[in-house]
Amino acid sequence: MQTTANILTGLVAALHAYILILEMFLWQKKPGRDLSGFDPDMARATAPLAANQGLYNGFLAAGLVWGLIADSPTAFSAKVFFLSCVVIAGLYGAATANRRILVAQALPGALALAAVLLAR
Fold first, then answer.
1. How many CB atoms lie within 10 A of CB 61?
2. For residue 51, how many other CB atoms are within 10 A of its CB?
3. What string of DSSP letters covers 38-67?
4. 74: Cβ–Cβ under 8 A, 6 or more apart, which residues?
5. What is the pLDDT of residues 5-61, one digit of tens each?
6. What is the model's pTM?
7. Which helix (DSSP H) or strand (DSSP E) does residue 26 occupy?
8. pLDDT tens sequence across 85-97
């Protein structure tokens, strides 16, 4: 179960690293505009906000990677904390921005968190 938990945690970390790239570097290009649904003018106007969001997603990814490489008991605590943050952010985003975030962010985070807790 530990291997499954680590794989799921790694996938969530990779997802958040990808979101960082989209929001910080590709927001005004086609992949970022496809994600947001914004036209070029709105993408340009919201780019600083998106970059800020991207930075936070990068922090989540970094925390999850830390949880994967740290020694026990830090590894468990870091994974639980950062996966909990992912789930909470996903729930909030689904409630306030777009319901797709529930499936794209909260669900993977919740599955990884459940695996981490079951592996303990």
1. 21
2. 14
3. --HHHHHHHHHHHHHHHHHHHHHHHHHHHH
4. 67
5. 999 999 999 999 999 999 999 999 999 999 889 999 999 999 999 999 999 999 999
6. 0.93
7. none
8. 999 999 999 999 9
CA 96 to chain centre: 16
Are 105 and 20 in contact, with CB atoms under 8 Å apart?
no
Tell me if residue 7 falls in helix, strand or coil. helix
DSSP string, 58-116: HHHHHHHHHHHHSPTTHHHHHHHHHHHHHHHHHHHHHHHT-THHIIIIIHHHHHHHHHH
- Location of structure tokens 């992912």: 86
Cα–Cα distance measured from residue 69 to residue 103, given in angstroms and rounded to the nearest whole number: 27
Round to whole Å and give the CA distance between 33 and 13. Answer: 22
Pair 102, 86: CB distance under 8 Å: no
